[in-house]
Each structure stands twice: as C-alpha cells, then as structure tokens.
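Lab notes, practical 5.
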Amino acid sequence: MVVVAMPGSKVRRRTLFAVQALLSVGANFLAVCIFFYMRHRFGWEVWQNLLLACGQGIVYVVGALMANVMAARLGRRRSLMLICLGTMLIALQAMVSRSAWGMALAVLLYTLVSAAAWPFLESLVSADAGPHELSRRLGIYNLVWSGAGAGVMAINGTVMDYWPAGLFLIPLLAHVAGWFLTLLMQGNHAGAAPSAAVHPPAEPKLLAKRTLALWLSRIALPATYVVIYSLLAMLPSLPVLEPLDTAWRTAVSSVWMIARVATFAVLGATLWWHTRPLVLLGAAVLMLVAFLGVTLQPSGLMGVRLHAGLEIGWMIAWQVVLGVVLGMIYCCSLYFGMVLSEGSTEHGGYHEALIGLGCALGPGAGAIAQWIWPGNLLAGILAVAAVIAASVGAAGVACLAARRGGG
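Output from the prediction step:
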C-alpha cells in the first residue's frame, strides 16, 4: 500500500489532483450535463430544467457550508472518503431510477453531497504555499476540474446516444476510484488543518489590491454561476441547436468550457492579474454581454433569418468570450480567497457557497419568468440577464467605494 508521507510532497498533490479529476468527471455527468439528459429522456421543458438548476443551487450552498463543520469533526481525509462513498451510492440510485422526479431527486442529493468535497480539495491543495506557488497550484487545480468538465460535455451527447448506461456507470466507477485514492492518503497530515502562515505578510498597498480583488471577484462570482446554470438549463432548448443531433449539441455547447480551460492555463502561468483588480469589473460587464450573445441570435433580434451555420458561428464566438471572462472571475475569487486566508477550508466553503447562490438565483429568476410567461424563452433570458446586471452594478459600486476610500 502506498503511503503519502509529506504534507507538501508532489506525490500527495498529484494524488489530490487525481481525486479531484475523478470527482469532476462524476459531477459533470450527474450535475452539470444532466439537463441534456432530462430533455432527451423525459422531454423536460426549459422551466423544468431551470427549477432543477435552482434546487441544485440551494442544496449546493448547504453542502459547501457543511465542509468546515465536517473538517472540524472528522478531518479532511475522512470527510473526503465519506463524500466519495455518498456519491457512489447516489450514482447507483440514479442508474436504477426510471422516473423524471426520481432522477431529479438523485441529482439534488448528489449535488448536496458533492458540494462539500471542493472546499476540502481547495484547502489541501493550497496548504503551505506562498502567493506565487499558490497561483501555480490553483492554476493546475482549475485546469483539472474545468478540463474534465469540458471533456464530459463534449462527449456527453455521444454517450447518451450510444451507451446511455455510461452516463451513470462512468461516474460510479470514478467515485469508486476516488474513494480508493483517498484511502491511500494516509498519515495524520491528511486530516490536519492548514499550518500557520510561514510567509511574510504582504505590503499594505498589495494587501489593499488583493482585498479589493477578492471583494470584486466574490461579488461577481455568484453571477458567473447565474450564467452557467441558467445557460446549462437553456442550452438543450435553444432554437439554434435544434437542427443538430444530440452528439453535436453537447459538442457545440462545450466551447465555452474549452475557452475557460484555456483561460485557466494562461492565468495559472502568469502573475499580471495579481495586481490589477479592476480587470474584474471589465470581465463582469463583458460576461453580461456574452451571455446575451450566446442565447440571443441576430436573426431573432433583426427579424431576418440567417444561415444556420452563421447562427451557430455567432453562438460559438460568444461562447469563447464567455468562457474567458468566467474563467477570469472564478480564478480570482479562488486565488484571492485562498491567499488571504492561508488556504483555509472555511474560505473554500464561502467560495463554493457563493457558487451555489448563483446557481439558485439565476435559474430561479428564469423559472419565475417562465411561469409568468409560459413558453417565452426570451422572458427567461432577460430575467437571468437582470440578475447578472445587478451583480455587475454591485461590482461597480464596490470599485467606487474603494476609490473614495483610497483603495
């Protein structure tokens, strides 16, 4: 049996990244890409997918905030093992479920349990790292989970068409493997809290920039998941994708995820963004524009039907922009939260809870709009856009307050 000995060893971190990759595969099949399955298998409409996404957001907040309590009582390693065991059982439940609402219940339970895993992983990866090393580690961390997500989305439709059982069997096997790898992470360090800070404190000016960047990114972070989960719920029903078969629909829908992976790669390899918090305000504004660009077609806005290829090209181009700005905001929220808290599980929980908040608010607003105006996809899109706009406005207010305060 392999024993991972040193808290900061490369072997231990590689094991953590492997566990993270396996959890990401499961989460993307059972929580992120599930909306295409619900549309394909049960004929769900947009409002039903939006309600499911909203429910996921609510339970995600609960799961993320549970992490710090679990860490205090069980330790991080044992908590991760328990989470892997729980996700195994829920994946099995999803596999045997035959009804739409039984599947929805499995998705909600899965989201609740899996949400608690990410604060542990973020904290364990961040432990004992200085600011520059932390940026590199979190860059790898972001590449792992986002790369898994992009890959799963790209192949999800093909698996759905040719191996439907694989939608549940692959996550089940991934979580079994994740549990086993977590078991190999032996030693007292695996459940210990992060060590006390051993790095010199930041200069006051740099600390002020980091603090502003944290506030801006955490104001904008819920909006990124307003976008992501609203978009995921809407994608299976967007008219521009209707001419495509299932395999191509999910492949085209993965473009923004691929762009996000590329953004994480650039940010993980560079440091320029560490001292430029105002870039986040521009990213938040562009996020709103890009969301509208992905969901609204020029033909619908101008009343002239364009060639289908041009409409898909328009959607893909805006997906690239969307993936870049989503990656920027997420990366900053995680990095600045971890660097200012010395990699604590508690702050990882806050980061993930904000994600859940966005998952609930955006789809919730879209579902309400669909209830008021049944079948009106535009109403749902504009309701989600209004939530994003409110977040962008809050980020602008935070910038003004910081300038007036000399930050």
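Observations recorded by the TA: Residues 1-8, 188-199 have pLDDT under 50 and may be disordered. The domain at 10-404 is CATH 1.20.1250.20 (Growth Hormone; Chain: A;).
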